[in-house]
Amino acid sequence: MNVMYQAAIFDLDGTLVNSLPDIAGAMNRSLAAVGLPGFAVQDYRLKVGNGVFKIAERSVGGRTDLLPRVLELYMKDYAEHCCDASFAYPGIVKALKDMEAAGVMLAVFSNKDQRDVEKVVSFYLPGVSFSRVLGRREGVPLKPAPDGALEIARGLGVAPDRILYVGDSMMDMECGRGAGMATVGVTWGFRDRAELIEHGAKYLVDRPEELPGLIRRDEPV
Length: 221
Prior knowledge:
Elements: E1 2-4, E2 7-10, E3 17-18, H1 20-33, H2 52-60, H3 67-81, E4 87-88, H4 92-101, E5 105-113, H5 114-124, E6 130-136, H6 147-156, E7 163-167, H7 170-178, E8 182-186, H8 193-198, E9 203-205, E10 216-218
Helix pairs in contact: 1-3, 2-3
C-alpha cells in the first residue's frame, strides 16, 4: 500500500530549533534574581517540553514560594532574548523547503507561548511557508493533549491519518498518536531514542535530510 502524506506538523524546541541556550540563559537569570542557583544548559533538556510553568516549577525545586516571581521574570526575559543564542538544526530549513516543494503543507505546534513561537519561527526558519504556527493559548490544552494538532488538521483540511507529526519527545509522540497521525521521532533533539520508541514513534529519523523521504511510503496492507 502506498501512503502519501499531505501535511506535516512539527514540534519546535528540539525538533526544528535548538532553543536550550536561550531557555537556560533566561531561566538562570531569573533564578539568580531571586537568589536561587542556576543549571547547566544541558540540564534543561529534561525540564522543557511541558510549557513555561513546568520549566519554572522544575527549576525552583522546593522553593515553590518563589515560583510565581520566577515565572514572571522568565517569561519577560525569554520574550526579549529568545533569539540570542538558539539555532536551527543544520539541514532543517532545506528539508522543510524540500517538503514544501513536494506539495506538503507545513505547520508548527509547540507548548511554548504563542508570541515566542511566532518570533522564533520567523527568526530561525526564514523562507519557510508554514500554513499554521500555534503555541500555548488560553483554552487549548498543552501537549500531549491532541486538541491543538487536531485544530491544525481541520484548518488544513487534511485527514489526520494523512499527516506526519514530527517531534523529539514522548509528549510529541503521545500527541500525534492521540490525534491519529503518523508519528515521527527525531533523534537529534532533547530526548533519547528509547523514549521515542517507548511512546510510539512510527518512524525514526536521524538526520533532517531524511524527512522528505517520509512523504511517500510503501507499507504493508
